[in-house]
Design brief:
The chain is mostly helical. It is about 70% helix and about 0% strand.
């Protein structure tokens, strides 16, 4: 039996159906086909046909499942093709349910498209339950998060099919990076907002304002990517200058909203000190990371000289220190490999909330009874200070015109000192915890409505 051919046929049997529900959801033919319960008939039939000759082996493997047995089964062409046909049929049925449920609820096809894409690519991750829950938390922020995901998808497609180069990087690289980064931030904020219950209206404002402002930025990024021109610092035409000026205003407004979020987290009544400080310190680092972006818009010395000489410049501001943007850079990221780059510290800083909140969650789940709440909070502080130290270090490195991947002795010594200080502080906490009297149990996991 030619399993390679069957594998290809199984793929071809579902791809047109996914194309219909993602890209042509309102077409009458799409509604008729996807409305049928037999939509997954072809991959299901392929599955049944393949299972027949292998039924004894499969029953033996699944009746008493073990990792080694399943691994052996899937390592064969027959086993892998059977499993793949099963995945295709099941994911398509889940996608059908998402599509029909969204139509019944009247949810925009634009919003559902990324969910369907995730269901197609990653199965359970795309299930609709997450979307429903996120919508209840904050509708604007949910729309923004999925717009960011949509921008990422479009960006990946652009990276594959669009050969244009902008400032030394593939045209859609910036959009893809921003989509990923902003989507992660939106998802994190959706997780965070229910924890801020003491001032629900203010928390709602933070969600709606963040989602609205960042959605506008996504639209601006997409417009410039479609045109194949830079977004940031672009003043080459009146239209480009207007877009960049508008984005500059949104950046300032978003920083103010983030400041409000930090204040809100600081004022939130504490029911779980470990997670509370993880959120507070993480958001504070985010605020600092976003503030680093204010170092980029001022004219570089070269640009200033050109402006003073009455010459026209196409860009005012830069990510790179010591050279114009567009030189050799790290693949995909674009960070300069020959000069300093302010995007490094900016990127690390704006993801501080994920790093420090994750540290807090891990510390909450440590089983050691001798590690008290106070010790765990102290470890969160050590992690946050060390992380902020890294942000400051790479920013200082960039301001000295030094590329991230070519640190000098001073930078390496500073990094070593930062790591050593963090490790020593952590060791002191552990030693003190082990020698302290019997510890209290750690805080319970936060429950909805209990606050941070």
């Amino acid at each position: 039996m030619d399993y390679t051919l069957i594998f290809g046929l199984a793929n071809l049997s579902v791809l047109p159906l996914w194309f219909l529900i993602i890209l042509l959801p309102h077409w009458s033919i799409t509604r008729r086909i996807i409305g049928s319960p037999l939509v997954a008939l072809v991959p299901a039939t392929i599955y049944l046909v393949l299972v027949g000759p292998q039924i004894a082996t499969l029953l033996s493997a699944v009746s008493n499942p073990s990792l080694s047995g399943i691994t052996t089964l899937l390592a064969t062409p027959a086993g892998a093709t059977i499993a793949w046909a099963h995945f295709l049929a099941f994911d398509l049925l889940v996608g059908r349910w998402v599509y029909l449920d969204a139509r019944e609820r009247g949810i925009s096809a634009l919003l559902i498209a990324p969910v369907l894409f995730l269901t197609f690519m990653l199965g359970p991750i795309g299930q609709f339950g997450l979307l429903s829950r996120a919508w209840r938390i904050n509708s604007t922020l949910t729309i923004f998060t999925f717009l960011a995901l949509l921008l990422t998808i479009i960006g990946v497609i652009g990276l594959i099919f669009d050969p244009r180069i902008v400032l030394g990087m593939p045209n859609w690289a910036k959009s893809t990076k921003f989509g990923l980064s902003l989507g992660l931030y939106g998802a994190t904020l959706l997780w965070l907002l229910p924890l801020l219950q003491s001032r629900p209206r203010l928390a709602g404002f933070v969600g709606h304002a963040s989602g609205g402002i960042l959605s506008l930025e996504i639209v601006l990024l997409a417009v410039q990517a479609i045109r194949g021109v830079p977004m940031h610092f672009n003043v080459s035409t009146p239209f480009d200058s207007t877009l960049w000026g508008f984005m500059s205003v949104t950046i300032m407004a978003f920083w103010v909203v983030t400041l409000i979020a930090v204040i809100l987290a600081m004022l939130q009544p504490v029911s779980n000190r470990i997670l509370a400080w993880g959120v507070r310190l993480g958001l504070l680092i985010v605020l600092i990371g976003f503030a680093e972006g204010f170092l980029m818009p001022p004219p570089t010395p070269t640009q200033m000289a050109a402006l003073q000489a009455g010459q026209q410049v196409h860009l005012i501001g830069a990510h790179t220190v010591g050279a114009a943007d567009g030189g050799p850079g790290i693949p995909f990221l674009g960070w300069s490999t020959q000069h300093g780059d302010l995007r490094v510290g900016h990127f690390i800083g704006i993801h501080g909330i994920q790093a420090i909140a994750l540290l807090a969650l891990l510390l909450m789940r440590r089983p050691e009874q001798w590690l008290t709440i106070r010790h765990r909070v102290t470890l969160v502080w050590i992690g946050a200070i060390s992380y902020l130290g890294l942000v400051v270090l790479v920013t200082w490195q960039a301001l000295r015109g030094q590329p991230l991947l070519s640190p000098d002795t001073l930078t390496l010594t500073s990094l070593g000192g930062l790591i050593a200080t963090g490790l020593i502080a952590t060791a002191i906490v552990f030693v003190h915890a082990r020698r302290a009297p019997a510890a209290l149990s750690p805080d319970p996991s936060p429950m909805p409505g209990r606050g941070v």
